[in-house]
Write a structure and sequence with these properties.
CATH superfamily: Response regulator
Number of strands: 4
Number of helices: 6
Largest sheet: 4 strands, parallel
Low-confidence stretches: none
CATH class: Alpha Beta
């Protein structure tokens, strides 16, 4: 099993959106049984909360099933339990690397680092910008490339 964890700040907008989109891509590729996919936040602001209504709305518009998870804060054990810990922006990636320590077992990267020739490395937070479409578009592109990367690394 390949374990993938998406991480943003509060775990109600970008990371649950990425979790749902990536699950959708994995299912389309016929690899559902090969993956465990989840999301978390670096901050504990929304622990126990459902995904933001803007996230749920954009997923529904695109016929993608909403994630079943509720907001949670990342834990040290996540760096041992997940193969890929994928941040949605530079600040969260830095926080994850500091939390993981010098030799994390998980691969820690920003989602858009997997996209060739991407002009931006960060997915703007729609909690603050209100632009869930922009987040959706960037996350969708990132998830396609992330899955391709994982398939190549794991001979899937």
């Amino acid at each position: 099993m390949i374990h993938v964890l998406f991480v943003c700040l509060g775990n109600i907008c970008r990371s649950p959106m990425a979790e749902a989109i990536f699950q959708h891509e994995v299912n389309r590729a016929g690899l559902k049984e090969s993956f465990v996919i989840d999301s978390a936040g670096t901050g504990g602001y929304h622990v126990g909360s459902e995904p933001h209504e803007g996230t749920l709305e954009i997923l529904k518009e695109n016929k993608i099933q909403a994630p079943r998870s509720v907001g949670r804060k990342i834990e040290l054990a996540d760096f041992e339990n997940y193969d890929y810990v994928v941040a949605l922006d530079t600040t969260n990636a830095g926080d994850l690397r500091r939390l993981a320590g010098l030799q994390p077992q998980a691969e820690i990267e920003r989602l858009l680092d997997y996209v060739p020739n991407q002009s931006t490395g960060d997915v703007p937070d729609p909690y603050f910008t209100g632009d869930f479409q922009e987040a959706y578009d960037l996350i969708s592109e990132g998830c396609v490339h992330l899955l391709s990367h994982i398939r190549e690394q794991n001979n899937l």
